[in-house]
Amino acid sequence: MRNSLAVTAPPASGPPAEPAGGGPRRHRDDRRVAWLFLAPVLVGFAVFYLYPTVRGVWYSVTDYSLLNTPSYVGADNYAKLAGDAQFWKSLRITAYYVVVNIGTQTVLALGVAALMHRLTRSVVLRATLLLPWLVPNVTVGLLWMWLLDANLGFVNHLLSAVGVEPQGFLRSPDLALPSIALINTWAYTGYTALLLYAGMLQIPPHLYESAALDGAGELRMFRRITLPLLRPILALVLVVSLIGSFQIFDTVAVTDKVVPVGATRVIYYYIYQQAFTYFHMGYASAVAMALVLILGLLTAVQMWLLRASRSDLT
């Protein structure tokens, strides 16, 4: 019986056949579509970031007080900045705040992330850790201002219950700034811990299994495996925390009425006072530009020291 299926010949080797039109095949150019999708982002960046930055640079070399038109004064604002004792004091206060805030926040977040990674991966626990970060900073400041009140605060009631004298946390020149730093540590530790926890999940489990077979304890595995492989994520967290700490404003503004004058005047609050209390817009812009340069330098040094672009994970 003859097979009714036709046998097809294999395709002949050689260059692919040209389209019926006879011309070369043309690929569709999607660049216009790509620019169309990028347009909203580019417009938003230009309106809300690029234009204010350029305008801020211009204001920093002018004498401007919101009540007069800006007049060009060259580098006078920067010369005044170099000799401004209040600026340098605000910078020192900010540096102290950054050290306390980032130090406590990073250590606590690393501990919480390591415990979650090695003991539990509960979704409920992760959601609970994120709750303080979701509360607005103004609300956080008001909440802790009441909790730390020397007369009615819950914290001082606890101290009195264990025989410790009540403390004026926000009214003391020595305790006000560390108290605000720890308030923000409470607010941001959970968010930082989740970022570090996400980085720990990328570490291959067999490394811990091999180390456990060799008799390594949890502390040694954390020091020899977790920390080295977590370096890129840790660098990202430290850079973001550094920039955010230098920009602290809300908590300081809320508690400013009860703290001693100048005890918590960080650099961002100093810029606000110069601009909207004394109406020195040009000088405030110069201080803001100086802050941008300081943050850029600190970020570059931090990335270099942590070797953020390289990972031990291969």
Notes on the structure:
The chain has 314 residues and is an all-alpha fold. 65% of the residues lie in helices and 1% in strands. The protein contains 13 helices and two strands. The protein has helices spanning 31-59, 76-82, 85-118, 123-134, 137-147, 154-161, 176-200, 205-213, 218-229, 231-246, 250-255, 267-276, 281-306; strands spanning 62-63, 71-72. Strands 1-2 form a two-stranded antiparallel sheet. Strand 1 (62-63) and strand 2 (71-72) form a beta hairpin. Helix 1 crosses helix 13, helix 2 (76-82) packs across helix 13 (281-306) and helix 10 runs antiparallel to helix 13 (281-306). The termini are far apart. 25% of the residues are buried. Mean pLDDT is 86; it is low at 1-9.
- Overall morphology: globular
- Structural category is mainly alpha
**SSE ordering:** HEEHHHHHHHHHHHH
Distance between the termini: 63 Å
If you average the pLDDT, what whole number results? 86
User: Helix fraction?
Assistant: 55-70%
Largest sheet: 2 strands, antiparallel
Tally of extended strands? 2
Rg computed from alpha carbons, rounded to a whole number of angstroms: 29 Å
Strand percentage: under 5%
Order of strands in the sheet with most strands = 1-2
How many helices? The count is: 13
What are the low-pLDDT stretches, counting only 5+ consecutive residues below 50?
1-9
Top keywords for this entry?
single chain; 314 residues; mainly alpha; two-stranded antiparallel ribbon; 13 helices; globular; disordered N terminus
